[in-house]
Amino acid sequence: MAKDEDETEMLNTYFTNGAEVEISSDEEGFRGAWYEGTVIRPIPKKQRRNNNDGDESSKNKLRVLVEYKTLMADKKGKKPLKETMSLVQLRPRPPPERRRRFKVSEEVDANYNDGWWEGVVMEVLDGGRYSVFFRGTRDQLEFDESQIRIHREWANGEWTPPFDEGEEEDKEENNEDLEFKHADIRLHLDWINGKWVRASQALKL
């Protein structure tokens, strides 16, 4: 019962209708990646019980209908793919973070093949580019700084590492007086109605 209550709270907090999310898939060729999408609506338990797929365990789990942002259901690429997912396959879309420099051996996500794939920085190149190695496919590809982000895990409503850890590490390594610039300050954001919004906007809601 407690687990059902936890899932319901998670659904009502992070996966309401219209919430911007990232979606993982167990299908071959898509495993290990997170794809951007939007929650359309939850699937009522009554509707799932009427499904004759024979999987009783899946019928007891909360599931939601989602629409992908980058994956399409047709060859022309005009009809976004829609799928029914369990909550363990979803997470909120990470809030935007300031651009930063990455280091060799740092775990990152790279925007590749329509999704975010986990990799490791192997080499820092000129011009703000990085060589990233993907363990799953054994590929090593180059990406612009804007195409990669720190790899984070989301569990129990929290991100690991938290979103302020990178900034704190930068401060300690510099070990010098900091002169803050407008570009170095990350806006305070609140999660409201399935989206990250500025604090000033939140006051108006």
Overall description:
- Pfam families: Agenet.
- It comes from Anisodus acutangulus.
- InterPro entries: Agenet-like_dom, Agenet_dom_plant.
- This is Agenet domain-containing protein.
- The chain folds into two domains: about 1-90, SH3 type barrels (Roll); about 105-175, SH3 type barrels (Roll).
- It starts with a helix and ends with a helix.
- The longest helix is centred in the first third of the chain and has 13 residues, at about 1-15.
- By secondary structure, it is α+β, with helices and mostly antiparallel strands.
- The radius of gyration is 19 Å and the shape is globular.
- It is about 20% helix and about 40% strand.
- Strands 1, 2, 3, 4, 5, 6, 7, 8, 9 and 10 form a ten-stranded antiparallel sheet that branches. The chain has a two-stranded antiparallel ribbon with strand order 11-12. Strands 13-14 form a two-stranded antiparallel ribbon.
- A hairpin with a 7-residue loop joins strand 3 and strand 4.
Q: Estimate the strand proportion.
A: 35-45%
Give the overall shape, derived from the CA principal axes.
globular
Second rung of CATH, namely the architecture of the largest domain: Roll
**Continuous helix count:** 5
Number of beta-strand segments: 14
Helix content: 10-25%
Major sheet details:
10 strands, antiparallel
* Count of domain modules: 2
Q: SS-based structural class? A: alpha+beta
Q: State the end-to-end distance.
A: 33 Å
Mean pLDDT: 81
CATH topology of the largest domain: SH3 type barrels
At the first level of CATH, what is the class of the largest domain? Mainly Beta
Order of helices and strands: HEEHHEEEEEEEEEEHEEH
Radius of gyration: 19 Å
Low-confidence stretches: 166-187
